[in-house]
Amino acid sequence: MSEHVYKMIELTGSSTQSSDDAVRVALTKASKTLRNMHWFEVIETRGHIEEGKVLHWQVTLKVGLRLEE
């Protein structure tokens, strides 16, 4: 059985659509330069309000990257 080691990083994505879309934005952008992303955990969700309406969402994630052998 192979043992794996992971490195954790934090990312913050933003979106005017939804918190789910903010997660997608962060992971899609990160996947262009990072390899071996295997899991994420939402650690914080924030939003910007103007005139009683949500203008955009910000979501901070912990992302686990498996280190290569």
Structure description:
- The chain has one domain: Dodecin subunit-like (2-Layer Sandwich), CATH 3.30.1660.
- Strands 1-3-2 form a three-stranded antiparallel β-sheet.
- It has one helix and three strands.
- The mean pLDDT is 95.
- It has one helix spanning 19-30; strands spanning 6-15, 37-50, 53-66.
- The chain starts with 5 loop residues before the first strand and ends with a strand.
- A hairpin with a 2-residue loop joins strand 2 (37-50) and strand 3 (53-66).
- With 69 residues, the chain is α+β, with helices and mostly antiparallel strands.
Shape call: elongated
Question: Biggest sheet, in brief?
Answer: 3 strands, antiparallel
Helical proportion, percent range:
10-25%
Order of helices and strands: EHEE
**Poorly predicted parts:** none
Radius of gyration over all CA atoms, rounded = 14 Å
Number of strands: 3
With strands numbered from the N-terminus, the spatial order across the biggest sheet is 1-3-2
Q: By helix and strand content, what is the structural category?
A: alpha+beta
Mean pLDDT score? 95
Straight-line N-to-C gap: 14 Å
The CATH homologous superfamily is called Flavin-binding protein dodecin
Quote the beta fraction. Answer: over 45%
> Mind telling me the CATH class?
Alpha Beta
